[in-house]
Design goal:
Helix content: 40-55%
Strand order of the largest sheet: 3-2-1-4-5-7-6
Structural class: alpha/beta
Protein name: Demethylmenaquinone methyltransferase
CATH superfamily: Vaccinia Virus protein VP39
EC number: 2.1.1.163
Enzyme class: transferase
Number of helices: 9
Distance between the termini: 42 Å
Organism: Actinomadura rubrisoli
GO molecular function: demethylmenaquinone methyltransferase activity
Number of domains: 1
CATH architecture: 3-Layer(aba) Sandwich
Length: 233
């Protein structure tokens, strides 16, 4: 199994997720103690996809996060650069109307300017090699006035909770890795979470990519966070 490093070479990251595609959703649930499901429901409410809209769900993996947008009536594109994840998604989401799967790199999205009313990425932004460039690409494909929603791991602002969170990442996840068929993915996810910027720094990166009205809301005491923004056009 290829283990991606924090330089996040696309081929290594894609290969790692190819190898964990069948059990990816289960891995997320184990790693977060089931909180990932609550976070995804928060994403659905916050994005508020509407009938007739076009939504891009980037780093969608198996499409689990994309299905609710399609069910809300939005034409939804689940985009990912892991072909293994996309294959599993096409099989599992067969029959879901208004949902399509597209292979694509976050740094070179295969869509025209202004193609989407809303763009979102959940737990995938920290896996790209250039965060700012990915955010600019998302802005390019969003229409003027279009919405951005980023759901990503973060850092609890409370010092005691932050210590417990770091301890879980450094020691708890490696224990899970020992009984996993894909231990490298646990190590990578722990390392990438520890290295990820906090809420305020991510907000600055989003604003620096040209988005405006940037704001965020903590989930589960700041273990994750939702960042909202608007494309000024």
């Amino acid at each position: 199994m290829t283990r991606a490093s924090l330089d996040k070479q696309p081929a290594d990251v894609a290969a790692m997720f190819d190898g964990t595609a069948e059990r990816y959703d289960l891995l997320n649930t184990l790693m977060t103690g089931g909180q990932d499901r609550r976070w995804r429901r928060a994403v659905v409410r916050a994005l508020d996809a509407r009938p007739g809209e076009r939504v891009l769900d980037l780093a969608a993996g198996t499409g689990t996060s994309s299905v609710p947008f399609a069910q809300a009536g939005a034409d939804t594109v689940a985009c990912d650069f892991s072909l293994g994840m996309l294959r599993v998604g096409v099989r599992r989401q067969e029959g879901v109307r208004r949902l399509s799967f597209v292979a694509g790199d976050a740094l070179r999205l295969p869509f025209a300017d202004g193609s989407f009313d809303a763009v979102t990425i959940s737990f995938g932004l920290r896996n790209v090699a250039d965060t700012g460039r990915a955010l600019r690409e998302l802005r390019r494909v969003a229409r003027p006035g279009g919405r951005l929603l980023v759901c990503e791991v973060s850092h609890p602002p409370n010092a005691l909770l932050a210590l417990g969170h770091r301890t879980h990442l450094r020691y708890g996840l490696p224990m899970l890795a020992r009984v996993s068929s894909n231990p490298d993915s646990y190590h990578y996810l722990a390392e990438s979470t520890l290295a990820w910027p906090d809420q305020a720094e991510l907000a600055r990166l989003i604003q620096g990519a040209g988005w405006n009205a940037v704001r965020w809301r903590d989930l589960t005491f700041g273990v994750a966070a939702l960042h909202h923004a608007t494309n000024p056009g």
